Amino acid sequence: MKAVRILIGTTDGPTEVQRITPEDPEVRSVVCLDGKAIALPISDDYDAFVRRPTGVIEALTGHPAYRVDISQPIGCGYSWQLGILAAHVLAARGRLAGGQDAPGAAFWLTGEVDHHLSIGAVDDVGLKLMRATSAFKALIAAGQSVTVVVPEACEAEAAAALSEAFRGAQAAPRLVAAGHFDDVLPLLGLPRLRRRFPGARLALGRMRRAGRVLATGAAVLGGVLGLALAWPQGARTDPAATPAAVAVAVADADSGARALAASPAGAPPSVSLIETRAPVGRGCAAVAFQRATPVISRHRLASKAAASRVQARTVPAVGLCDLRHRIVNTGLGRLEVAVVAARHQESGARFRTRSLARARSLDPGATLDLDARPPIGVLEPLVQHTAVLALPSGWPRAAERLQQAANALKAAGSAESWARTVDALATQAVFLTTAGEIFTPQAGSDRKIGQTLP
Q1: Rounded distance, CA 107 to CA 368, Å?
Q2: Angle CA(86)–CA(375)–CA(357) in degrees, nearest 5?
Q3: Separation of alpha carbons 351 and 235, rounded Å
Q4: What is the pTM of this model?
Q5: What are 118's strand-pairing partners?
Q6: For 272-324, what is each residue's pLDDT tens digit?
Q7: What DSSP line would sit under 383-414, residue for residue?
Q8: Could you tell me the residue ranges of all domains in the chain?
Q9: Does domain 4-220 have CATH number 3.30.230.10?
Q10: Are the CB atoms for 121 and 177 separated by under 8 Å?
């Protein structure tokens, strides 16, 4: 069969997976730009996606370290996982199109992939498809078939975007919505898994003792979500009565709800800001390749603080290698967690919100890491707010009610509206932790915030 071209959807346009090269098992996996010696910011997350017990690629291919070259940068987030995984299984069969190959088909993919190979929803699918329209039309004009693969939860958004982009066109990409990676394999001309992962063995891999290895991996709980580089632009409509809407969304279901929230089984999560910097005289590249010891500082965030009392932490962008909000369920019972963030310029202009984690379960002891790094291309101070919302899973309709509260935050159209909504939530029976960061470029420097340092 002919080689297959893999395109990963990003909000800056599609990026092609050019090649995948197995590396020495003792080194870390890395994502590089167009064959250059440039490690992209997602390299650490890619290494975790490859290597057992957190990752899935080593379990499927039998090898723990790779170098991936892509044509355009991917800053952060996790929507690249589905495309990278598809590229790996094709490369293992010798069917990933390289620079000199004449591909028989092109696949554009976006989606998160968990340890069981389920495909999770991602944001901005419509925007990603809009930015890929010209590439799709060029491929179709060249006689290549184009297949768009999105998570099931994003099917309606993708269908609307493609319908608008190819209105009246004689040919358009085929749209496929998938809930599990097993559903993607036949599209690529590869056999399905023999049974649902974990415990499955792909014919392309040398996965030995799969059940024991994957049982160990399943014990490593937690998920990862990323903060995408391109946020929706412009302000949203400010709801007329946000505090009242919040009160309806999270009001107690019964008189025992508050008692449950105060019990060990319903303890609020621990939220910390973890800041990683290069040591004096060294750069982030030295840290990434383990040639220098990073300077790591952890800041515990207080819960139930009114917005007016949240002290924004100033974070100089120069020398910043990584910044994460770490959420840990320290209680004895499962929690439903949702996370919403907002950004605006220091003047308050260009306010926009984004859902970093829709309502999802967090088992006792599990950790959720959220990428909080600033975006590339900001030349003036940028203010970022993050709100972590949680409810005990034992509450009636906990996930639904939590998502309603998160939606109230997403509807904020200004910094003032955000603060009012946070204050309203702080009075409700919901676990709430808020954080604020101000990203500042180096005085007198033209270096962009978030730019990888030498």
Answers
A1: 30
A2: 60
A3: 5
A4: 0.47
A5: 180
A6: 888 888 888 777 777 766 677 888 888 887 765 544 455 677 887 677 788 88
A7: EEEEEEEEEETTSTTHHHHHHHHHHHHHT--S
A8: 4-220, 242-440
A9: yes
A10: no
